[in-house]
TrEMBL record:
Protein's organism: Paenibacillus filicis
Superkingdom, taxonomy of origin: Bacteria
Pfam families: SWIM
Keywords annotated in UniProt: Metal-binding, Zinc, Zinc-finger
Zinc-finger as UniProt keyword: yes
Protein's name in the database: SWIM zinc finger family protein
Sequence ranges assigned to domain SWIM-type in this UniProt record: 55-91
Length: 480
C-alpha cells in the first residue's frame, strides 16, 4: 500500500469542505466494522449515514500510484467524505481488523485488470486511434482573428506612446479597460493579460504613477515582444496549418494554446520514474490574469532541476476549485510531463506514490545546490534577456556564509567569495528576508538556499529573495 499520510489524503480530496467533513466523521466515530486486507492493498468498512443502512466505503491500493476510492453513498463528489474519512481513520490509528477482500471488489479489480491488458495489447500492436483531422478553414479563421487582435494591441500601445505617459487620465484608463475586454474576442488571453497589467500600472493614481514608470516601460517591452513573436508564429502557422506547436519556447502559451499531455509526450517532454520534493509553496492573486495562482517549487532529487507546479483558479470559478497546498513528502512519479519554458519548467503528473523525506534526501538536495554564484547569475541573465520569460527564476544556491553589507543589507556568499544581496525581489509579494533573523546563525552557514532572482531596472541591480533553507537534517520554509 502507498505510504498513507494526512498530506497525501489531503491531495486526494476534491475540496477543503470534503477534508473538513471527512475529519468530522472520524471525530464523531461514525465508522464501524473497519477492515484491512491481509496483503495490505485494501481498506474497507462501513460509515453511519443519514439513512437506515450504513454506507460501504473502501480505499483500493492495488495500484499504489492510482488509488481507487469507492462508496455506496449517493454523493456526486469523488472521492466522497466517507471514503476520505476511512483513510483518515487509518492514519489516525483506528483499529482495522484483517478480513478477506469482498467479492464485489475482486470483480471490479478483474475488470480493471482486463481493461489494462487490452490497453497494453493495443500499444504492443501499434493500434492507434486515427489522428484528428485539422479543420483548416476554422483554424485559418482563428489565426486571422488572433493576428487582428495583435494589430489592435499594437495600435493601442503606439497611440499610448505617441501621446506620452503623462497624458494618462481617468478617461483614458476607462477607454483602455474597454480595450482589454475587446481583446477577449480575439483568442489571445496572453495579450489581454499583458494589456490589463499595463492598465493596472497606469491606474495607480497620483503620486504612484511616476514611481511605476520603470515597470510601465518593462510592460511595454513585453507587449512589443509578444506582438513581434506572436505575429511570426501565427503567420508561419497560417502558411502551414498542420505545423506542430513550438515546444521550445513559451510563445504558444502566450497565444492561448493549452498543451494536452499527449502532445507533451509526443514532443519528448516527459521523464520516467522521477522523485520530487517540494521546497516552497505560495498562493497569490494575479490581478492581470484575474485568477488565483497556487505555485509550488519542486526539486528533482536525481537531476537537481527546480520545477514549478501551477494551478490557476479563475475568480468566477474559484469557489468550485480546491486550493492547492504545501506538500511535505516525496512524490514518486512514474511519468512526469514538462511544459515548454526556461529554468523552472512547469510540470504535471497524473498519478504518484509518496514517502516521507529521509536524511538521505536532505543530503541529496544540498548536494545539488549551485556552489559558484557567477555561473548561476549567467544563467539568470540569459533568461532575463527574453522579455517573455519568467522574471523571477528560482535556483538552489549553496550558502557558505551570511553577512551584513555596509548599508545594512544581508548578503549570501559562495566558496569563491562572491556575494549576492538579499532583498524581497517580487514586487508586492510576501516578504521573507526579515524572517532569516529568527533562525540561529548556525542554520545559515554551509547550507542550501532556494531563492528567486529579481532585476531592479531602476538601479540595474540583481537581487535574490530567500524562500527556503535546507541543511542535511532539515528543510525550513519561509513560504508555505
Amino acid at each position: 500500500m502507498n505510504e498513507l499520510t494526512e498530506s497525501y489524503i489531503n491531495a486526494l480530496a476534491p475540496n477543503d469542505a470534503a477534508v473538513k467533513n471527512a475529519r468530522g466523521l472520524v471525530k464523531k466515530r461514525s465508522f464501524v466494522h473497519l477492515h484491512k486486507s491481509e496483503d495490505g492493498t485494501l481498506l474497507f468498512g462501513e460509515c453511519k449515514g443519514s439513512g437506515s443502512s450504513n454506507y460501504l466505503c473502501s480505499g483500493d491500493f492495488i495500484s499504489p500510484d492510482k488509488p481507487v476510492l469507492r462508496c455506496s453513498c449517493p454523493s456526486r463528489q469523488l472521492p466522497c467524505k466517507h471514503a476520505l474519512g476511512l483513510l483518515y481513520a487509518y492514519t489516525g490509528g483506528e483499529t482495522f481488523e484483517a478480513a478477506p477482500i469482498p467479492e464485489d471488489i475482486l470483480s471490479k479489480r478483474a475488470k480493471a485488470e482486463k481493461r489494462e491488458e487490452q490497453k497494453v495489447q493495443r500499444e504492443a500492436q501499434d493500434i492507434e486511434t486515427k489522428p484528428k483531422k485539422v479543420n483548416t478553414s476554422a483554424l485559418k479563421k482563428k489565426i486571422a482573428a488572433q493576428l487582428e487582435g495583435l494589430d489592435l494591441l499594437q495600435k493601442i500601445v503606439d497611440s499610448l506612446v505617441r501621446s506620452g505617459l503623462g497624458t494618462i487620465d481617468k478617461k483614458m484608463l476607462k477607454v483602455m479597460d474597454g480595450q482589454v475586454k475587446q481583446l477577449g474576442n480575439y483568442y489571445l488571453p496572453g495579450a489581454q493579460t499583458a494589456l490589463r497589467r499595463l492598465t493596472q500600472l497606469l491606474g495607480q493614481g497620483d503620486g504612484k504613477l511616476e514611481a511605476a514608470y520603470t515597470d510601465v516601460v518593462e510592460q511595454l517591452t513585453i507587449i512589443h515582444a509578444l506582438v513581434k513573436k506572436g505575429r511570426a508564429n501565427l503567420n508561419a502557422r497560417l502558411e502551414t496549418p498542420d505545423m506542430k506547436p513550438d515546444h521550445e519556447t513559451t510563445i504558444e502559451e502566450w497565444l492561448g494554446y493549452a498543451w494536452p499531455l499527449s502532445e507533451l509526450k509526443a514532443c519528448g517532454l516527459t521523464s520516467e520514474d522521477v522523485e520530487l520534493a517540494q521546497l516552497s509553496f505560495l498562493s497569490y492573486d494575479d490581478k492581470g490574469r484575474q485568477e488565483f495562482v497556487d505555485m509550488g517549487y519542486w526539486i528533482d532529487l536525481a537531476s537537481g532541476n527546480i520545477h514549478r507546479t501551477l494551478q490557476y483558479r479563475p475568480y468566477k470559478a474559484a469557489k468550485h476549485i480546491r486550493e492547492d497546498d504545501s506538500f511535505f513528502e516525496v512524490a514518486a512519479i512514474q511519468e512526469l510531463y514538462r511544459y515548454p519554458g526556461d529554468l523552472n519548467r512547469r510540470v504535471r503528473w497524473e498519478a504518484m506514490t509518496t514517502r516521507t523525506l529521509q536524511p538521505a534526501d536532505y543530503a541529496a538536495i544540498t548536494a545539488k545546490a549551485q556552489r559558484i554564484y557567477a555561473e548561476a547569475v549567467k544563467l539568470v541573465k540569459n533568461q532575463l534577456k527574453n522579455p517573455l520569460a519568467d522574471k523571477h527564476p528560482a535556483m538552489l544556491l549553496h550558502v557558505s556564509e551570511l553577512k551584513q553589507t555596509v548599508d545594512g543589507k544581508l548578503a549570501i556568499g559562495d566558496e569563491a567569495g562572491q556575494f549576492l544581496v538579499l532583498d524581497d525581489a517580487v514586487v508586492d509579494g510576501p516578504a521573507t528576508v526579515e524572517l532569516l533573523s529568527f533562525l540561529p546563525p548556525e542554520q545559515l552557514k554551509d547550507v542550501a538556499m532556494l531563492v528567486v532572482f529579481g532585476h531592479r531596472l531602476d538601479s540595474g541591480r540583481l537581487v535574490v529573495q530567500p524562500l527556503s533553507v535546507i541543511s542535511e537534517t532539515r528543510l525550513t520554509r519561509l513560504l508555505y
